[in-house]
Design brief:
Length: 169
């Protein structure tokens, strides 16, 4: 009986493999429950797990790296780090530009990231960098759902302020 298990390293490898898969499934389940509790009935347009966040230009020091998830909601972009509990919300009207880049805070990251230029909570220009799966799709989704809405609302607000528009002078 002992000889049966002596040359069975594949069992150990299989247990490790399925243990890792189970751990990833548990982490995603836990994140989904947190999202469900936090956002409830709000419509989530896009969601990615395993997103790396490299910080903001306004933060001092070298770029940091944290792993978490990124959500695209109809009115904002939301990131939450898995380990630290760091959260970042970027409201659609504050987003200026979304583009691929490879640096943040003047440091080359040696990888392609999605960079978002926006106005921070102090109404100062800022940038954040995220490594996301399928960057072109994320850039297009942010542009189509957040940038266009904020630009349309700005145009609508400006047209209401112009004399002679809408019968008011």
């Amino acid at each position: 009986m002992q000889n049966l298990y002596a040359n069975q390293q594949w069992i150990t490898i299989a247990l490790i493999f399925f243990g890792i898969i189970g751990y990833i499934a548990f982490i995603r389940w836990r994140d989904r429950k947190w999202i469900e509790n936090r956002f409830g009935d709000q419509k989530i347009l896009a969601m990615s797990f395993g997103v790396n966040y490299f910080g903001r230009d306004s933060e001092s020091g070298k770029p940091r790296k944290s792993s978490g998830f990124l959500l695209l909601l109809p009115d904002r972009l939301f990131y939450r780090s898995r380990a630290v509990g760091l959260e970042l919300t970027i409201i659609n009207k504050n987003i200026a530009h979304v583009y691929p880049d490879n640096s943040i805070k003047g440091y080359d990251l040696h990888q392609s990231v999605v960079k978002i230029d926006f106005l921070n909570e102090n109404d100062e220009p800022d940038s954040a960098a995220f490594k996301v799966p399928y960057p072109p799709q994320w850039i297009r989704a942010i542009e189509n759902n957040l940038l266009e809405k904020s630009q349309k609302s700005e145009v609508g607000d400006q047209s209401l302020k112009k004399p002679g528009v809408g019968g008011k002078e």
